[in-house]
Amino acid sequence: MEKWWVFFIFVFISKTLTEIVLFQQIVNGDKKAFDQLFLSNYKRLCSFANTFLNDSHEAEEAVQKMFVRLWENRKKLIIPENPKAYLFKSVYNESMKIIRHKTTHSKHITDYFRNLSAANEETTNYSYFLPYLNKAVEKLPEKCRQIFILYKMEGLTQKEIADYLEISVKTVENQVAIAISKLREELKPYLHLLPATFLFTFFY
C-alpha cells in the first residue's frame, strides 16, 4: 500500500513539475508548450466549467477564453506553484463572468422556482415575485452573489464552494448569511406571497 502511495505522489509531483515547465516556456512565447497545456487539460476543464454553467457550449467558451487570456497575458504571467489549481480557478472565474454577462443567474432562479413548485404540493404563482428576486440578487455584492447562487441554487456544499473559490468554509458560511439577510430585507414586502415551504428552503 505504501508503495502505491509513493508512486502516486511521484506521479503527481512529476505532472506538477512538467506543467510548471510548460508555464515557464509559455512565458517565453513557446506556442508548442501552450498547445500541450491546452490539449492535456481542455476536457477536464470543460467538465469542471459545465458544473457551474450547465451548458457544454458555454463551458467550452469559458475554457477557451481562459486560455486566450493566458496566452495574451503570458509576458505578465507569474508562474503558479500549483498549475492545476491555477487553471481550475481561472476557469471558475471565466464561468462566473459568463453567468453575469448573460444573466444566467436569472435562469437559475427561474429553474429553481419551477423545480421547487413541482416538488411541493403547495402551488403559487411565482411570476409576480421573480422580477423582485432577480433584482434583489443582482444587488448583492459580487462575491456574496456568487456564493449564494452556488449554494442555494446550484446545490453545492459549503465545503465545495470553499474549495473552488480557495476561501475558508467560515467565509462561505458568513457570505451566505449576509446574502440571506440582505434578501430578506429587500424582499420583505413580497414574502407573504410565498408558501412556508419555500421560505424555509430559500431563506434559512
Q: What are its keywords?
A:
Arc Repressor Mutant, subunit A; 2 domains; 10 helices; elongated; disordered N terminus
Give me a quick take on this structure.
Helix content is 77%, strand content 0%. By secondary structure, it is an all-alpha fold.
CATH homologous superfamily heading of the largest domain = RNA polymerase sigma factor, region 2, helix turn helix motif
Mean of pLDDT: 76
Low-confidence stretches: 1-14, 119-125
Q: What is the top-level CATH class of the largest domain? A: Mainly Alpha
User: Hey, roughly how much beta strand do the residues contain?
Assistant: under 5%
Can you describe what's shown?
The protein is an all-alpha fold and 204 residues long. The protein has two domains: 2-101, Rna Polymerase Sigma Factor, Chain: A; 104-203, Winged helix-like DNA-binding domain superfamily/Winged helix DNA-binding domain (Arc Repressor Mutant, subunit A, Orthogonal Bundle), CATH 1.10.10.10. It contains ten helices and no strands. Mean pLDDT is 76; it is low at 1-14 and 119-125.
Q: Layout of helices and strands, plus pairs?
A:
Elements: H1 2-27, H2 31-53, H3 56-72, H4 83-101, H5 104-119, H6 130-139, H7 142-153, H8 158-165, H9 169-187, H10 196-203
Helix pairs in contact: 1-2, 2-3, 2-4, 3-4, 6-9, 7-9, 8-9
